[in-house]
Amino acid sequence: MYLIALCDDETTELNKTEQMLNRYEKKYPEMDFMIELFKNADELLYMVSKKAYMPDLILMDIYMPEKMGIDAAKELRNMGNQSRIIFLTTSKEHALEAFGVDAVQYLVKPVSEEVLFPILDRFLKEVEEERRRYLLLQIEGRIQRVALNDIVYCEAQKKMQCMYLADGTKCLLRRTMTEIYEMLSCYPEFVRVGVAYIVNLGQIDSLSAQDICLNTGKKIYLPRGAYKILKEKYFRYYCEEEG
Fold first, then answer.
1. Whole-prediction pTM value?
2. What secondary structure does DSSP assign to 93-162, as a single string?
């Protein structure tokens, strides 16, 4: 499923863009869009900041009376929101500013399917590639995208599990270790170490029969009999990476 936000103060333009997206979705039955309509930028900003709404794509008008689309995009970026943004506008005047907030495209109205559909093709391909290397997690009431490479290890802590990231961030998750491992087990770099840990093999600095030393300096002592299997997975992971 792809979450798509449309933001325009003109209802006619909102409906027109929504209809184009619906036609695109029918053209590709494997696509599943959840489209939300916003009549001004503040409605969108409220959903992102207060309701943890994180659309994959935002199609937003630049010229809106209460708040310009460029200003709304700057606020989104300041919140840490990384949604892809496509600006739809009647003028090229703000093109440079648009790319200053990492907009993926700047389209001048009226926008046709012939212009929009190839952009959606590229966007969806990029999102699919990213989704393979990111997790969407609910952390402290917010939906947060976490890069797999940034995950150092996870540790069981009774009802709350703790995920440690490379920058020192500590994320508390209301999930069981089994649920977390189910999310990570399809990626070869993640392995269970006993019942209390899930470790990213790419974050191991050294490995011995007694313990693992991670790049952050954290040392994890190995349970009895774990070393042989872990060593095999460690070497297999790096051999496949080099191959």
1. 0.59
2. TTHHHHHHTT-SEEEESSPPHHHHHHHHHHHHHHHHHHHTTEEEEEETTEEEEEEGGGEEEEEEETTEEE
